[in-house]
């Protein structure tokens, strides 16, 4: 009924020049396809690495910018405080100079503590209030 098939195929390829060229073309085409696949993978890998580096550097730039803005805000508040302290220091220096002046000191003592020179009379009016 059924005959056992032989191990040799029924169709045999001719070993001529045309067949060799077609075989070389097929080999060349498979090689080109493999090279394209490898290049695509490399390009994807390089692009991925580049994207990670750009993302990392972008995060660093963003953090640096935030830190810079924070430091600038702190610098502005510190500058404002410095100006207040300088103004206060200038006022205190002025007061020290005035307190070293004998005539000014006498004037302050007379106004605040109602001391008088000999022969002077001090009148206190109802609207007058001592400054302290």
Give a brief description.
By secondary structure, the chain is mainly alpha-helical. It has one domain (17-113).
Record keyword descriptors for this entry:
132 residues, mainly alpha, 2 helices, 0% strand
SSE sequence, one letter per element: HH
Number of strands: 0
Oligomer: single chain
- How many structural domains does the protein architecture include? 1
Range of strand content: under 5%
Mean pLDDT: 88
Terminal CA distance: 135 Å
Biggest β-sheet, characterized? none
Query: What is the count of DSSP helices, taking H or I runs of 4+ residues?
Result: 2
Descriptive report:
This protein has 132 residues and is an all-alpha fold. It has one domain (17-113). 73% of the residues lie in helices and 0% in strands. The chain contains two helices and no strands. The mean pLDDT is 88.
Topology readout:
Elements: H1 17-100, H2 102-113
InterPro entries: DivIC, FtsL/DivIC
Transmembrane segments: 43-62
Keywords: Membrane, Transmembrane, Transmembrane helix
